[in-house]
Structures are given as C-alpha cells and as structure tokens.
Write the structure tokens for this entry.
Amino acid sequence: MEVGAPQDARENKNEENEFEENGSSDPVVYQLVRVEGDGTLVPATEDEVLQFEHFVDEKVDLPSIEDVGRVEDFFANNCMFLKPDLEEGPCKLETTGKLQTQKLDADLEEDRLKPLDDSLDIPSKCTVVHDKQPEKLNTEQGYHNTVHLDNASTETTKSTVLNDSCSVEKEKADACSRHVNDSSTEPSVSGITSSVPDFSILRGEVFLDTLTIRELQEAFRATFGRQTTVKDKLWLKRRITMGLTHSCDVPSSGCVIKDYIVVGKDAKEELPTIEGILKVEVEATSLARDQVLDHANERDTPSSSYYQSEDQQRSSKRLKGISTDNDESLGTLQDEQGTAKRLRKPTKRYIEELSDIETFDSTGKLSSPGKRPAHDEVLLRPRATFQEVDSLTITYPTRKDTFGGFSVHVPYVSRMRRGRPRRNFSSFLDDKPSVECAEVQMAVEMTVEKDGEQGNHVNQAMEVPLMNNAEKNGGHVETADNKEVRTVEANILCRADAKSKTKRSLKRKHHRAWTLSEVLKLVDGVARFGVGKWSEIRRLAFASYSYRTSVDLKDKWRNLIRASQTQLYLEKDGSCLRKSNPSTIPIPPSILLRVKELAEMQPQVGDLAAPMQLNSRAAQGKGSGFL
DNA sequence: TTTAGGG
DNA sequence: CCCTAAA
C-alpha cells in the first residue's frame, strides 16, 4: 500500500486557511478510492468503504504500526476487495486531511500504463494516503518510513511510500516516489531533459486523438516537464488531458483541449469563456476548473466521477460544487463549460447519485456488494457525520463544500451509486438517520432468512448453480461461504452504522446464480400462469425465494429463451462445445425444450391459463425423460 | 406496481 | 442485474 505523506505545509497554506475558515473541527478525513486500470480514481464503493472503514476509524489520529499491519493483513486476506481482476484495479485507501494533500504514486501510474493486462499481475495494490496536520509531520514521517520498510519486504502487497519531501506537483511526486520506491528503474524518466519541451504543441486546441504517440509524448513532456517512455496512447492522452485541465474527469478519448480546458468534441463551439489560462509549467498553481464533461459513454467515464488526483489536489480548494449532470447551479457554473451538458433529463437515479443514503433494495434485503459497482459513493467519515447530516438538507452542489468543513477537495459530487433508486429518497432528507439501526437489524435478519431459505433448499440437490450458455455473466457461483460473507457484511454494516450514521448507498444486488430448481420453478410457473405473469409466478412459485423478484424471473426467462435457442441449436448442430464452467452445470436440454415450447405457444394463445396447464403437462412429461 | 425492453 | 418507460 502506499502511504502518502503530508505535504509541505507551506504548499498547502492556502488550503489550510480555507479549512480554518470553514471551521473544520476535524482535520482528517479519509476517503477511499479505487485506482482503476486506466489510472482514474474512482470513489470507493460502499462495500469497499465498509471494509476499510473500521481501519480508518480506529486510527483517527496517528495510525500505529499495528494498524498498518492490520490494514495490510486485511488487504492480503480480503479477496473480495483485493482480488485483482480485470475489472478492478488496485485499491487505494486515501485519506484526505486538513492539508488535503494527496500523493499519487507515480509508479502506480506507470504500472497502469498497461491497464487491464497488467492489473492482473499486480496482486493487491493498495494505496493509503494519509494526510496529516503539520504538527504531526514528524511523527508521521516515522510512521511512513516504517511502513515503507515493511512494505519493502512484502511481496504480497505492492507497496510504495511517498516521502514527505515530495512536492505537490505530480511531476515531482513522480520523481520522488520513483526515487523512493525503485530508484533503480526507469532512471531516465524522472529527469527533465535538457532540451526545452515544445510547448507550442499545447497551444490552442489540442486534438489529442490526432496526435501520434511521439507527439503525445512531446505533449506530455510539455505538460509535465518530463519525458515519458510510455507508448500507450490512451494513457498519454488521458494524462495530458488531466495535466492540462487539472481535472481527473477526462474522457479517454474524443476530446479536444482548448486553452487547457477540455472541450467536448461536439460542444467545442459552446465553450463559453476561457477562464484562466493555465500555465503548463509545473509551478503553475492556477486552478483548473472542474470540467464537467458530458461524455456519452457514461459507463466508462461517469460524468459524476470527480476523481481525486494530484492535479485536482492542487486545485481542489477551488473545486466548486460539482455538478451532476443536471444540478447546475447556473450562477456558479457560468464560466464553465457547463454548456456541454447532458441532455438527458434528470432522473431519479441521477438525483440520488448525489446522496449517499443507504437503503435496501426493493426486496427489502440488504443489498449486497456488487461484484463490481463501477462507481460508488465515497466514504464519509464518521466524524463528519453530523455535518453530513446537515448537509443532506442542502443542495447538492454545495453539499460538498460543507462536508467536514473541507469537502472542497473531496469531490463528493462524484458520489455515485449503482443500484436501485431509492423510492423514499426524499424522506431521508427529512428524517434523521434514526432508522439506520433498525435497518441494519432488518438487514441481518433478512440475511439470515435468506440463508435459511438457501439451507432449506440445499437438500434438493438441484440447488446447483446453473450455467446458461446464453448467459455471459460468467456464472458466479454461490458458495456455502456466502452465508459467512453476508454475515460479515452485516456486521460491518452494523458497525459502520453504529460508528457513523453515514448512510450507505444501495448496491448492486448480490449475484445469485440460478439453481436448477429455481429454473424448474420458473418454467413451471410460466407453464401454469403464462409468460408475463411474473408477479404471479413470483408470488406463488417463488414464495420461498424472496431474493427473486418478478423482474428477475422475467430476465431469467428471457435468458432461458435465448438459451433454448442457442443451445438447442448448437446441439443440433453437433458442435456443442460450451466452455462450461466446472462449477456450473448447463441447463438440461429438457428444460430448454420446455422453455422453447412455452415461449412459442404462449404468446399466440389468447387464453393462457387453460392451455398452459395442458402444455405444461405435456412438456413436463417430455422433459422428465431427459432428467 | 408491473411489464417489457434495452443496456 | 440494472434502469426506465409505459401501462
């Protein structure tokens, strides 16, 4: 893990003052973020936050070496959070303190050059940036050094430590961290070459997409004052964009940079006013305004994700209330590129993304951690809880400003939540988090209930996750330890809840592989009630499967239809080569046949009930032979 | 609230 | 699975 040291106090003087002005009583705030493969910082998901929360909580002041060890152990042991996979990049535990400094490990970024591929080779890469108050610098130094030493001998967790002496500038940070971490590698990268970078390349509009790698490298050099050997165009473009705009929220491509401001391809002409031209030089301290980019590819670059980066750190104090796509407070955004706004009308989801209220999903269950909630909300420190509560009643754009007294550098605007929208979202604004404990309690109970259900069906021997050829979701297998996992989740939740009344966002429903018995029930239900009677089927046939919603049934049925079409076709074709997951079993052809039959006949028959019954029988008899 | 579809 | 638009 990486421990970022406090920045030089002088460099943060401004921020400090601002914080003082804000009357921040709690100088230290932790923010958990994940470093994505492409180098962006994504606010940690609720789950991630929960898993780290207690670590952070317990060392409000000076983290002890024990804590560090615990954290490391946690990192090493918690596969849920650390298990590297293509989708999840290294994790980063970042704390933002009064100095609101943040170091990015340059090497980390270098490693990210080969985003997806390399992330696999990087076991658990976690970063902890702990910013401290000036008065604690000395002790912190020792702390960091210690951590560094520990990490040096730890292979399981790739750790790096940023030296306190590192400057704020990312360029310097790069060099510094490189120096600290592996001075033996890439010696040429850290230095600034003798020749002068070609700054002209950055003037006017920069169409990064049209530049060659060499040009991009030059632009990079002009931007950061150092050379780079990186040949990854995407990375270069991103870095350059970030560097020029001081914004982390940059699209991976397709953007134009004009006067150091990202301009959407299609919104270029709308660019209102060009505010302060930023100096390219590293010393430049002018702030970049947050670029609110309307990026069509929302999934890749959520517009609401304002990742913190070294760049932003510097300008974070001026970070204005972020905007979600529609929350523009026109007054404050006038000078912005706000023009390139999303056309999409504000939906409940967007509104809720701004809040970090945790709720349960429609089934009333505690939402479990998604396999990978792309962008979730950021942890709110318990200490700031009271402020947060208050802030809930405030308009979102300003919410950030009041958070902890220095939310300025914590773009909570980006807080996103993947999951079902909260219905009674507004009620949370009025009510104090009094229901939280109850909710958690209920969550636990629900969990137990689910487990119980699961247990009741285990002996049916059909409770085996099915692998549907038509489903490409990778057949996540529900294992026995899920119970434990859920319990732990509940505990963490409880604890987190007790500690901080931080509301959590609803998360993606835990993937629950469909078992053969469930499929049978579904098929039978369709046969009995007809296609489309999902509510009925769920109520009657899935009474004991509370975690299956009618939508689930519908989706599953759709998948079954596909499966029946593809799989049966393939088998007929003889080339039935399914790369089946060993832990899953394919849906028996017999069932697929039934599905096919039902699907074909149901829609045509006006009278669903009666015919269905007959068909059901017939199909059953037919299918049973295969079973 | 449910359904139907797109993602 | 998620998210929405329509019913």
The two ends of chain A are 52 Å apart (CA to CA). Residues 299, 532, 534-535, 550-551, 554, 558 of chain A lie near DNA strand B (CB under 10 Å from a C1').
